[in-house]
TrEMBL record:
Residues 18-63 form the Putative Flp pilus-assembly TadG-like N-terminal domain. This is Tad domain-containing protein. InterPro entries: Tad_N (IPR028087). It comes from the Bacteria.
Length: 451
């Protein structure tokens, strides 16, 4: 008897009926989601860019108007009207912004679509009408919700999860925010009398390099060390016809009115005069030593600093033997956090939000300094240093009068004063330059992703 041959089981046509249909449905769903990603994604990106441009223009227009009407009783209203009018002009169907115009109309008008607020500080608090301390200088325009037409977006929301849909997908919309105010290189002629040596070959602002310096990193300004313009010169500015320790002390104590041409040069003062330098700078931390007048040299709102002090050791900044490292402006040594510029910013916000709660004067710890090309200088004594630019330098800690001649601090990206004015200023306010800033919220060390 022959053994029966066993054939492997194969499905009959009846058992395969409908299998192709399932594959087709899954393939179509995948294609639909890919279409949503390509079409809706590019549509959102395009409209986000258009909205940001419109909001940027509105903030600049509002800040320019505020500069012109500052001090008047209707400054808040005039500023808001100018910003919203510019936003409306940008929502023009003839320029391709018809969808923005439709959204403004659907919201009930541009006043309900966008918010305009004012502040005396780039860090806030912002309000409308302006109710903060000091004079308003900065304008913030924000659009929190700009709904967009969904092409395949609704399908992606309605498809079941097993087909790649997401019922929790939010409605298709974008947002934008912009802050504008006076340029930190053009707002006043009040500077601090020191030149910081920069490297003209190390200027790459797109990658955060400003003449060899980066925002947030710890820096030291030193005297009597290599890098000074010439032997025996401490990079101190000559203050017009004034000279000597008393003038240097008062200048570091209260600043000095001296307009600098960004394309020109600055004259330096021979000598170190370190005692007056330290005495003048320390007033900003509420420390008074020597012939200084507290009434003309008030402390900053925030005077805290870490101890023991940071000091240079073999060319490395250390605290208590541990190297100081910086992460986005946050300083630490041996794993322990230091009191740094981000702590100052947060304290600044608290003081600004509660007028009268902090004694002293805002921004006293921020030095407005000249960055110069010291390598182009030859010879000794009083020298002339070409100007590369200007910087905002946060005073990290008190300055020791004895021992190493060092000033520690961090460069800041935004500050509200400066040493720049045009070559022939009509007054001490500098040229009327308005620029955009990053927008900050609860954590002032982290800007809004929409700005």
């Amino acid at each position: 008897m022959k053994p029966r041959m066993q054939r492997p089981f194969t499905a009959t046509p009846a058992h395969q009926r409908g299998a192709v249909m399932v594959l087709v449905v899954i393939a179509l769903a995948s294609m639909l989601l890919m279409g949503a990603l390509a079409l809706d994604g590019s549509h959102m990106l395009l409209n986000k860019t258009r909205l940001q441009n419109a909001v940027d223009a509105a903030a600049l227009s509002g800040a320019k108007t505020l500069q012109l009407v500052a001090g008047s009783g209707s400054a808040s209203t005039l500023t808001r009207d100018a910003a919203l009018a510019t936003l409306t002009l940008n929502a023009d169907p003839d320029t391709g912004n018809g969808e923005l115009a439709t959204a403004i109309t659907a919201a009930g008008g541009v006043g309900d679509f966008a918010m305009v607020e004012l502040s005396s500080s780039v860090y806030g608090p912002f309000s409308y009408p302006f109710a903060g301390p000091g004079e308003a200088s900065y304008v913030r325009v924000k659009v929190p919700d700009y709904p967009l037409t969904g092409f395949f977006w609704g399908a992606a929301q309605s498809l079941p999860e097993w087909l790649g849909g997401n019922p929790e997908l939010p409605d298709k919309a974008v947002a934008a925010i912009a802050t504008a105010g006076p340029s930190p290189t053009a707002s006043t002629c009040k500077i601090d009398p020191i030149v910081v040596c920069g490297d003209p070959a190390q200027y790459d602002p797109e990658n955060g390099n400003f003449w060899g310096y980066r925002y947030g990193d710890l820096q030291t300004l030193t005297c009597g060390t290599p890098g000074s313009p010439s032997a025996g010169n401490c990079q101190l500015l000559r203050l017009g016809d004034s000279s000597g320790g008393a003038d240097i002390r008062q200048a570091f104590c209260a600043g000095t009115e001296q307009c600098i041409d960004e394309s020109g040069s600055v004259n330096t003062e021979p000598g170190i005069t370190w005692g007056p330098v330290a005495q003048g700078l320390n007033t900003r931390l509420g420390l008074y030593n020597g012939p200084v007048d507290p009434s003309s040299c008030p402390p900053d709102w925030y005077t805290n600093y870490s101890q023991p002090l940071v000091a240079m050791d073999g060319g490395v900044a250390k605290q208590d033997g541990a190297q100081v490292v910086s992460t986005n402006g946050d300083l630490s040594a041996g794993g322990n956090p230091l009191t740094d510029v981000n702590d100052w910013k947060n304290a600044y916000m608290g003081c600004a939000e509660s007028p009268g709660s902090c004694s002293g004067v805002a921004e006293r710890r921020v030095l407005n300094i000249v960055i110069g090309n010291c390598a182009a200088v030859a010879g000794g004594g009083a020298t002339s240093v070409p100007v590369l630019g200007f910087g905002c330098f946060y005073l990290l800690q008190k300055v020791e009068q004895s021992g190493a001649k060092e000033v520690f601090g961090q460069f800041m990206q935004e500050c509200e004063g400066s040493g720049y004015a045009g070559p022939t200023p009509a007054d001490d306010t500098g040229p009327n330059i308005i620029q955009l800033y990053k927008s900050y919220f609860s954590g002032v060390s982290t800007p809004s992703p929409d700005s």
